């Protein structure tokens, strides 16, 4: 009965986190924040800072929330999210969904698409809020 | 004015557009590799050795020198922001530097490190300008006997003073000497240790040893550390230290310059050791030693000043005596030899253009570094986001092409890959390649001067003690070998007596 959110330290990740917190509060379920970044470089923009994330969660859930944070270094983002969801017997996966052109999708493949198609539980896809 | 006219003429050399360009290129490259933890200045200079073939000697050495002292600036950045020392000489900076970054004072730490580095570097160049000709003048009378003793002392000091286990270092130095013996005997012409191979008859080229052990070895080793999690992208903020920061670090910068300059000259000293000693000195001198480890700005200013001063002053033994003081200088020695220049006491007189050009380029280089390092820190940090999957193959490719261009010989490429794997394994089990490369470089000098002095002394070893300078050096060598084990023996026996 866990809500899992794939988090990245950017606007989209923040939107996904906000939605996930709302869902977790609504369901009375614990929240698991998963940060997947690709290994192989000293610094990576997709790696979250644990302290900053803690502050963000506190800010977004004033009532307090049972949550845990896990950082995974893995090339295949979809695989990492799916594996974590299975391990935690998640009842919901929350992911951020980027708007992308057809060509971009063709070249890059889509982690989001794999999660949507292969997950055993419902998946909530959040889009970046338009300013 | 006799002394100053070549010095001033040296500035004329530096200000030639070509040399200025190579100076800028060198310090920029130096900063980049300084930032990258996997690639040190020794490895970079080794990899770039073949590139310098087609450049003028002065420009080539200006560039390589720039890489060396530029790396001392760059290494700080990752130490402070990520607690990931870019260079061995910035390891101690990480202690207080990173603590400062966590308190939101990353900018102050980086700013003071850059200012300290600039002052340390400039003070050391100034001192170098006056000390180097004196040492060179003194060394003019050196004969083969003195050089034998000096080379021996150099190898020994690097092995005993350097970081890591002495036994391991001496073992490495011995292997280095053995590798240097491969090929034809310089006097008799018989082949040694070639195992019947024609390829080995010419001996192993220094470039191959340096590129293999340092270049390929370090790249392979750094791949290991890149398998884990990446760090979050750091934020830098303002990089200009406050007036309070500066007044607090004044003393540290002064002491750091002195410590760095003196230790840089010593064989085996160099940037790494001087930064560690400077940190210890600051801790002792501080009014509040308890602040160290909790973000004391002196703990950044002292070591960072010292490592730059040492990087500069370690050129003194190389340029005046022809004895490299550390591994990076050993590679610089190789670079000079490749250009057909034998570093030594005659260099100041015979090639004043080169000597003063290189020395004076360090003033300019330090100014360039100060000007670049503060505003461009954000750009340098971006380098850390390059994936190893891109960087490593690219560097290996450049290295392979470089090795091939040395002699257009495919065998050399195999040899370098082999040495690269050996270098990787050595690092993995804690053997430093430094003493090996240094002994390899000094091996031929040691051999030729030893055999020449044996001829002079009619084959009598006692002849060495007839030469005052050589005798003093040899006594120093004896003391270095015998005193530490003896004191250890005394201490243990005393402890036994007490027990």
Describe this structure in words.
The complex is a heterodimer of chains A (131) and B (499). Chain A is an alpha/beta fold and 131 residues long. Chain A has helices at residues 11-27, 50-60, 77-87, 102-108, 111-118, and strands spanning 2-6, 31-37, 43-44, 67-73, 90-97, 123-127. Chain A has a single domain, classed as 3-Layer(aba) Sandwich (Rossmann fold). The model of chain A has no long low-confidence stretch (mean pLDDT 85). With 499 residues, chain B is an all-alpha fold. Chain B folds into two domains: 4-155 and 232-409, no CATH class; 468-499. Chain B is 73% helix and 1% strand. Chain B has 21 helices and three strands. In chain B, strand 1 and strand 2 form a beta hairpin. The chains are: A alpha/beta (131), B mainly alpha (499). At the A-B interface, strand 3 of A face strand 3 of B.
Compact overview of the structure:
The complex is a heterodimer of chains A (131) and B (499). Chain A has 131 residues and is an alpha/beta fold.
Query: What structural class do you assign from the helix and strand content of chain A?
Result: alpha/beta
> Helix segment count of chain B?
21
> Per the principal axes of the C-alpha atoms, what is the gross shape of chain B?
globular
Q: Care to count the β-strands of chain A?
A: 6
Write down the oligomeric state: heterodimer
Name the helix and strand elements of chain A from N-terminus to C-terminus, one letter apiece.
EHEEHEHEHHE
Jot down its keywords.
heterodimer; A: 131 residues; alpha/beta; Rossmann fold; 5-stranded parallel β-sheet; 5 helices; globular; B: 499 residues; mainly alpha; two-stranded antiparallel sheet; 21 helices; 73% helix
Topology:
The complex is a heterodimer of chains A (131) and B (499).
Chain A: E1 2-6, H1 11-27, E2 31-37, E3 43-44, H2 50-60, E4 67-73, H3 77-87, E5 90-97, H4 102-108, H5 111-118, E6 123-127
Parallel strand pairs in A: 1-2, 1-5, 2-4, 5-6
Helix pairs in contact in A: 3-5
Chain B: H1 4-14, H2 17-35, H3 41-48, H4 57-82, H5 91-102, H6 106-139, H7 144-161, H8 166-181, E1 183-184, E2 191-192, H9 206-225, E3 231-232, H10 243-265, H11 270-285, H12 298-313, H13 315-321, H14 327-338, H15 347-350, H16 352-373, H17 377-382, H18 388-407, H19 410-428, H20 433-456, H21 468-498
Helix pairs in contact in B: 1-16, 2-4, 2-16, 3-4, 3-9, 3-14, 4-5, 4-6, 4-12, 4-14, 4-16, 5-6, 5-12, 6-10, 6-12, 6-13, 6-16, 7-8, 7-20, 7-21, 8-20, 9-18, 9-19, 9-20, 10-11, 10-12, 11-12, 14-20, 18-19
């Amino acid at each position: 009965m866990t809500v899992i959110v794939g988090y990245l330290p950017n606007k989209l990740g923040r939107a996904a986190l906000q939605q996930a917190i709302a869902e977790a509060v609504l369901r009375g379920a614990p929240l698991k924040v998963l940060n997947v970044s690709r290994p192989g470089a000293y610094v990576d923009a997709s790696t979250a800072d644990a302290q900053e994330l803690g502050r963000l969660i506190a800010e977004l859930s004033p009532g307090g929330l049972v949550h845990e944070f896990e950082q995974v270094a893995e090339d295949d983002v979809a695989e990492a999210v799916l594996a974590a969801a299975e391990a935690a017997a998640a009842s919901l996966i929350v992911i951020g969904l980027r708007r992308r052109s057809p060509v971009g999708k063709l070249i890059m493949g889509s982690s989001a698409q794999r999660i949507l198609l292969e997950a055993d539980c419902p998946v909530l896809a959040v889009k970046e809020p338009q300013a | 004015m006799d002394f100053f006219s070549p010095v001033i003429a040296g500035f004329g050399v530096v200000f030639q557009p070509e040399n200025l360009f190579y100076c800028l290129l060198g310090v920029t490259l130096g900063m980049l590799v300084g930032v990258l933890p996997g690639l040190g200045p020794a490895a970079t200079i080794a990899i770039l050795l073949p590139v310098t073939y087609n450049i003028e000697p002065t420009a080539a050495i200006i560039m390589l020198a720039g890489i060396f002292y530029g790396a001392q600036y760059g290494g700080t950045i990752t130490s402070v922001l990520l607690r990931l020392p870019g260079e061995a000489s910035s390891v101690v900076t990480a202690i207080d530097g990173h603590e400062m970054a966590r308190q939101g004072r990353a900018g102050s730490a980086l700013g003071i490190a850059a200012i300290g580095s600039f002052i340390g570097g400039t003070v050391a160049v100034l001192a170098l300008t006056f000390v180097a000709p004196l040492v060179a003048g003194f060394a003019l009378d050196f004969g083969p006997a003195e050089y034998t003793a000096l080379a021996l002392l150099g190898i020994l000091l690097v092995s005993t003073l350097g970081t890591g286990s002495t036994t391991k270092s001496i073992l490495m130095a011995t292997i280095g000497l053995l590798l240097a013996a491969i090929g034809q005997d310089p006097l008799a012409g018989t082949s040694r240790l070639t195992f019947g191979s024609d390829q080995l008859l010419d001996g192993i080229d220094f470039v191959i040893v340096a590129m293999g052990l340092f270049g390929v070895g370090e790249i392979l080793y750094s791949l290991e550390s890149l398998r884990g999690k990446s760090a979050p992208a750091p934020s830098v903020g303002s990089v200009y230290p406050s007036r309070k920061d500066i007044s607090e670090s004044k003393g540290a910068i002064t002491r750091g310059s002195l410590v760095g300059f003196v230790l840089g000259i010593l064989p085996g000293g160099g940037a790494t050791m001087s930064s560690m000693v400077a940190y210890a000195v600051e801790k002792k001198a501080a009014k509040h030693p308890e602040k160290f480890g909790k973000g004391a700005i002196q703990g950044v200013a002292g070591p960072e000043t010292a490592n730059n001063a040492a990087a500069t002053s370690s050129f003194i033994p190389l340029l005046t005596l022809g004895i490299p003081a550390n591994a990076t200088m050993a590679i610089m020695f190789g670079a000079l030899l490749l250009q057909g220049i034998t570093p030594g006491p005659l260099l100041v007189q015979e090639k004043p253009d080169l000597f003063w050009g290189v020395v004076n380029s360090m003033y300019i280089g330090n100014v360039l570094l100060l000007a670049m390092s503060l505003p461009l820190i954000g750009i340098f940090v971006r380098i850390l986001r390059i994936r190893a999957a891109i960087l490593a193959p690219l560097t290996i490719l450049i290295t392979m092409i470089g090795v091939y261009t040395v002699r257009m010989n495919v065998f050399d490429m195999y040899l370098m890959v082999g040495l690269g794997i050996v270098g990787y394994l050595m690092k993995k089990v804690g053997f430093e390649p430094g003493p090996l490369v240094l002994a390899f470089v000094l091996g031929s000098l040691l051999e030729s001067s030893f055999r020449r002095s044996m001829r002079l002394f009619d084959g009598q070893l006692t002849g060495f003690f007839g030469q005052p300078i050589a005798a003093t050096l040899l006594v120093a060598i004896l003391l270095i070998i015998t005193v530490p084990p003896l004191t250890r023996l005394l201490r243990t026996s005393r402890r036994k007596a007490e027990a």
